[in-house]
């Protein structure tokens, strides 16, 4: 196990040392054909875009030499005919340039959308498969920043920046070659700034990379603050903490602004510096090329072509600043997304099938020990047997480890030592989805999704009919209040079910569990946050759904579990007592003491 873990560490280290662009290209291997098509269209577009200066040079040659021009040497002596040919060539070149501009624009944008779509889905699906520890150590806003802002940043680069880089490279190669063919004597003057421009571009890239990595980190903190505050807006208002939260948000926003300012200060200097280098090449050609044309060492047409081409070569390089700016932002974002995808899955999915209709529901904890990361053991050498079809209760003081048992049974966390079995099979060997399908959980912290009441009841049982949904609601004693809602079962419950009361949310959660019809039902403090009337209604519904079903009830209110087949009492991660309600009262131990406190007998 240690060897496998070390191997994963080495593999992740190697992945993190690979350049983000290489990792992105590896990820997009399925789009190689589309990438090559897009690159081809970008190159062809630039070739036709660079042709007009050549045509201008030929036109000047026709004006100056007429019957001795380049076209005349091909057999067309008539000047009008020569200009007619030039006009036809111009029309063809412009049409082809437009066609390939449309093609590359469509290809790059569709590629950006496809990669963005798949990358977001892959990243989200990978997140869903990670253990809960991963989420406990990270903010929701930071993860949202990766799934949304970082992936959008990559899309913006693929939309425009990739094409710009390819076209600049094409321009340098084509025009550089043309210079050395047409006027080798002055070509070196025009091309002399190029090495410095390229060196400067790569130097700026290296300097910008850590700055944009810091920008992405700061925006993650900022998004985390926003998500956290919007989720807790009720608490903020109730404690009149609006000014305090505004101050904290201003601090995070200021940190993001300063981080961006550092990057902007450097990236903004790129274009002015490049312009100074361009000035050297352009002036050299203008002066020495002009003198060569006057001296007859170069034709007027060639000189005209070179003057146009030098601008087409050097001025686009000023856009490298914006392009590299986009590129560095995209690479910083790509690194964060790829690091998320490279996060190893520590929970084994299991390979033993467990059909729900075959589950008897016998659960056993055998010498289980567990501790949360960097904390003392919460469960210590605990053994507990739950017969199939029986209702057992687990009680104890806060922090005794009751809810942790539920998380271990659902494999939200893995046990450190010992094992948990369902129908005699180690749950680590069971297919993880099969295990969780056979367990229904109703917790004290009910989460309802933004949508209708019916959608929330049918969550997890998505093929349920309206009749089945209503039947489940009746069992949970929720049908009556649902019918009284403005749109009945089609009423929108709001984010996290905020439009409903705590008791209403709890009964919808029970209806959801009823509809799922699991062989094993877990009730984790299911009535802890409701009033007495709602508790009585919930208790009536629970009595119906626990019949002939393995039920684990974790409770703080002892009155709700007094009829359980067996009650286990936990203290400090260990079982200290067990028995029926009457047996535990006779023992006059921890349970009896808790009962007297709650029933007002002390």
From TrEMBL:
It is a multi-pass membrane protein. Residues 36-329 form the ABC transmembrane type-1 domain. GO terms for cellular component: plasma membrane. Pfam families: ABC_membrane, ABC_tran. One of its GO terms (molecular function) is ATP binding. The chain crosses the membrane at residues 79-96, 165-190, 266-288. Its main location: membrane. CDD domains: ABC_6TM_exporter_like (cd18565), ABCC_MsbA (cd03251). It is found in: Cell membrane. Residues 363-597 form the ABC transporter domain. It comes from the Bacteria. Keywords: ATP-binding, Membrane, Nucleotide-binding, Transmembrane, Transmembrane helix, Transport. This is Xenobiotic-transporting ATPase.
